Amino acid sequence: MVFGRRVSVLVALVVVAALGIGLWGAVGFASPKDKDNAHHNNDKGLRTLTVLTKTREAKVIDLDPQGASQGDMRVLNAPLYNATGKKKVGRLDLFTVLTDPADVSSEKANMVESTYTYTLPGGEISAQGVAALATLTEPAPSQVDAISGGTGKYAGVRGEVRIKTRGKKVTSTFHFID
Fold first, then answer.
1. Kind plus residue range of the DSSP H or E element containing 39
2. What's the gap between Cα 120 and its chain centre?
3. Are 147 and 127 in contact (CB under 8 A)?
4. Closest CA to 110 of 125, 100, 124
5. d(C-alpha 126, C-alpha 147), whole Å
6. Do residues 63 and 69 touch, judged by C-beta distance below 8 A?
7. How far apart are CA 172 and CA 125, in angstroms?
8. What is the structure's pLDDT at 24?
9. What contacts 62, CB < 8 A, 6 or more positions away?
């Protein structure tokens, strides 16, 4: 009787260990991976990925009435480079819609909603957010938007993207939450 109980406990422990190993493997498989070491670990346990654009093709669509008005859009595409700017790694597609124009003298910025798709080797990362812009023709100097999803090796990613503009160079750093 004691021998049978020990076997049952041993079998239960083996099953629990196997399930734990399987869960650990599934989480690791679903996490974003990059063979270029573009992901970095910081002291908070978050992984990051940094890409940048140097030149962009952008068009502003000005709906009636003339000038900044609700529904005006900026549509943009640009090649993506690694953090050093030396290797092309993908592309960025973006559209921004003016939701609240600065049409009163007390308002200093236009409010916009932006949706980004970063196409990278192995998948895409989508982000979106609201920003305050002086004009639709130029990006904000800095902003933080939510990562809203991903495909391929980025499926299930969560976190935020921090975007900083300096002249013609825009740096996007993704902070992935585990």
1. strand 39-41
2. 11
3. yes
4. 100
5. 6
6. yes
7. 12
8. 46
9. 69, 72
Chain centroid offset of residue 161 CA: 5
Q: Model confidence over 139-172: pLDDT tens digits?
A: 888 999 999 999 999 999 999 999 999 988 999 9
Task: Name the token pair of 149.
Answer: 């999803």
- 132 Cβ contact partners less than 8 Å away, ≥ 6 residues apart: 109, 110, 111, 112, 140
Calculate ∠ Cα 144-52-58, nearest 5°.
85
R_g of the chain, CA atoms, integer Å: 23
| Residue 83 CA to its chain's centroid (Å) | 15
Low-confidence residues of the chain: pLDDT under 50: 7, 9-20, 22-44
Beta carbons of 145 and 127 less than 8 angstroms apart: yes
Please tell me the number of Cα atoms within 13 Å of 116 on its side-chain side.
27
Query: Which tokens go with 89?
Result: 């790694």
Q: What are 74's two structure tokens? A: 């900026």
How many Å apart are CA 26 and CA 126, to the nearest integer?
A: 22
